[in-house]
Design a protein that fits this description.
Blueprint: H1 2-12, H2 17-26, H3 55-76, H4 82-103, H5 110-132, H6 140-161, H7 170-193
Length: about 200
Amino acid sequence: MRLRRTVAALWVATVLYWPARVLVARSWPTPYSWRDDVISALGATTCAEYCSPDHAVMNATFVAVGALTAAGAAVLAPQAAGRDRVGWVLVAVSGLATSAVGFLPMDVSPAAHNLAAQTHWALQVAGMIVLATGALGRDRRARALTVACTAAAVIGGAAFLTPGTWGLGAGLSERIALDTLNVWTIGMGVLLFRGLRPSR
């Protein structure tokens, strides 16, 4: 029970990602476009293609959200076995990749930044799929949340990588791909508070 509540608190705390983005976007000297501007633009440290005066807040948020996600999954992994343990390990490593995004701003280390972001997406989606087919998937609420967020992340990722982004814009398609992963983390935290047993 105590472990579940610890993980729940860590994951619900990742909700800080949302107000932090709004705060950073509001400081832009030119309007930030939630449809066309990518998420990483909020962490740009120089005023070249993008100008984000509060970039330090955004990059610190990437680091914190990734660390909280990784820590929660790392707590759950030893309590699980087989497929479920693999799923939690994938989510934990995905969280570390999220933190790396904050340490590697897009205008400073573009190749490493993009690799970290893609690794975050790929590993968390893989981890969610693995978990949905294991013990976690036997809980109706957890399965529904996981399937919905995984589907949205895959659809958003496909749109983001397609020329024209299906008319959604780079910013919106990327948000569908990546923000749904954070929605899953927060949702899982809430379910853990409400008694979900992540391993059986």
